[in-house]
Amino acid sequence: MAIDQPGTTGTPDADEDEPEDIVMSVRDARVSFDMARGQAWVLNDVDLDVRRNEILAVVGESGSGKSMFASALLDAVEDPGVLAGDVTYYPDEAAGESQTIGSFDQGLDDSVDVLDLDSDELQAFRWEKVSMVFQGAMNSFNPTMKIKAHFHETIQAHNAVLEERMDHVRKLFDALYIDFDRVMTSYPHELSGGIKQRTLIALALVLEPEVLVMDEPTAALDLLMQRSIISMLRNLRDEFDLTIVFITHDLPLVGGLADRIAVMYAFEFVEVGATRDLMKNAAHPYTRSLLRSVPSINSDVDEMEPIEGARPDPVNIPTGCSFHPRCPVADDRCEIEDPDLAAVEDDLQAACFYTDQAREKIDYTLEDESTEDDR
Amino acid sequence: MSTDDATDGEQHDEEAEHADEPLLSLSDVEVHYDTGTGIERYLSDKRVKAVDGVDLELEENDIVVLVGESGCGKTTLGKSAVGLERPTGGSVKYRGQDIWEAKDHPRGADIEFREIRRAMQIIHQDPANALNASRRVRAILSDPLKKYRTELGPQEREETIYRYLEYVDMTPAEDYADRYPHQLSGGEKQRITLGRALLMNPDVILADEAISALDVSLRVEMMDLILDLQETFDTSYVFISHDLANARYLAKRAGGRIAIMYLGNIVEIGGPDEVIQNPSHPYTEVLRWSTPSMDPDVAMERIKEKPPVRQIDVPDPQDPPSGCAFHPRCTKAREACAEGAPELYDAEETEAACFRALDNHEYWSSPELEDAEGSGTAELGVGD
């Protein structure tokens, strides 16, 4: 559905009746690298819409192309990678006045073609409209500068009003349970990893972007801190009207957080859907196999099974459906034809010809004995 | 030792001699580090107690999974257990022989230090850094054979390498033996390091986060391989993990134990179902709460709950809390917990280092603990 019609293209005024309010849309995005062994595709013609105010989790294993998708959203693919296709941002016309915060200038009800921006525009766009927190980025603070200086520098670079912005930072710090006075006057090395990562999230939000893209933002943190940040993100979204794109390899981590999940395999999306539908009864053989291969705290250990075979080489992606060499329900058709994402249910799409067979043949159970009392 | 090739007679005698001793026995092991550099080290009496008085025994064919957050001392304890880190206090015995005695006083030792070293191997978290990138798999695997199996000729050595490559599911072995590490996937590299460790015919393997660097869909496969080979080779494992779900998988399949560590101590130890389903230590409950549920309905409810701790940040290990090290974060702490440090007691189904395991402890009549002001409670935890 959303995939077939590119969101609210061109006519954002007319989208009152649209079922979905799209904030970013990606069409035919592809990233290639020239390697000695040939051309490597690390993002292979992907289409995806990000809905306004949702938390979208992009889930994939290492080397599936998920980080490349995150970079594509901000036109931040590093050389020598080449990004082609369309990435479009649709501003929220209701929030007209907030668009005066920084220096990024756009016609009020125009959509923004992200890949068309020059480098100054892109610089402004990346903080003011779509912001990003990278993996392990808590180490990107300058060790010789106090935290406060990092905020001031960012605000001034975007010609924003310092006092007004710092008031906003106080609100962000409250939502992230950071002690404003202590942290602002500290050097980065004086702070724990968890506090640094939360501070960095606040820094990414200082210019009130609409979209926050996070690549494995909790990967280097302890379990409890991970869970705590996950809870804070939900509150942040509600309080500051954010859209969050959360990139991770950890499917169980986002079960309670995301509204929708998009699963990547071999540089493309193989399944996209509402979290509950996707986790409870996935349609794509890869998603089902993945759910069956990840032990959880009270799953049946005898039912766990790894996914046979190895992940594909970016230089040599299998023909047809890229999962077919590892797929228990694949047949000749899958070797030749590459399935597109197609609706399986209301809010669930899968790129597979044989979703019924997959559901029949690949069994998995989420833990069902509910985790009784906790205290 | 069920394998055909790897045992030598000498070792059999020693085994018979020490049959009644546990394979590995740690008693009151402490690893304390001085902090600071140069003169600071002498002026300051601050020490980091990475491991602070741990007792642990490992039998033949046993698995213990050490679980804890970063900085809890699980790697230091693991390394002490296999003789890679010298404890500053306490003893580590291999089949009854104190391993550091064997090193310092080789004449009086029943088992040579070199032999102990061979018997205890390690697999690291990152297989890419554990393999020499400029050498082929064949060369990487011949080193331990050249050092410890000097009786083998080149032909036998070659055959042994192929056989071990097959043990770790790397077939055709001839093909893999010719590859360089960069021609292997992460999972394959980790299997080479496992094969290399097994070539020494060890009694104990320390696997330090050995599956954390692998793709999630391959972790079960690697754990299954380790378990299969444990049956083939009768090896015991000390497995280190920060992930309770993986720890449970391993311990459950192997019939082993899970040991939960917090700031240098084992705070709870027992069978996987007992530790996870019916923990007696509040910290184990926190870890379980933090491990996400696969069921989205449960997870969506959970995410709205407050974390079951007073504060989310771990205290500075240079300045650990008095009494029970967990008390400033523990929702069940009372004043008694700030005064005395609990040892491991027999609890309901596990052993736990918590006064609540003792029915008649003064804890029960002790007043509730006031939240220490400014101790980071504002950081999160109890706010909405």
Task: Reconstruct the topology from this structure.
The complex is a heterodimer of chains A (375) and B (384).
Chain A: E1 22-35, E2 38-51, E3 55-59, H1 66-73, E4 82-89, E5 112-113, H2 119-128, E6 130-133, H3 147-157, H4 162-175, H5 180-184, H6 193-204, E7 211-215, H7 223-240, E8 243-248, H8 251-254, E9 260-265, E10 268-274, H9 275-280, H10 285-293, H11 332-336, E11 342-345, E12 348-350, H12 355-361
Parallel strand pairs in A: 3-8, 3-9, 6-7, 7-8
Antiparallel strand pairs in A: 1-2, 1-4, 4-5, 9-10, 10-12, 11-12
Chain B: H1 9-17, E1 24-34, H2 39-43, E2 47-58, E3 63-67, H3 74-81, E4 89-94, E5 97-98, H4 99-104, H5 113-119, E6 120-123, H6 127-130, H7 137-148, H8 154-167, H9 173-177, H10 186-199, E7 204-208, H11 216-233, E8 236-241, H12 244-254, E9 257-262, E10 265-270, H13 272-277, H14 282-290, H15 296-302, H16 335-339, E11 345-346, E12 351-352
Parallel strand pairs in B: 3-8, 3-9, 6-7, 7-8
Antiparallel strand pairs in B: 1-2, 1-4, 4-5, 9-10, 10-12, 11-12
Helix pairs in contact in B: 7-10, 8-10, 10-11, 11-12
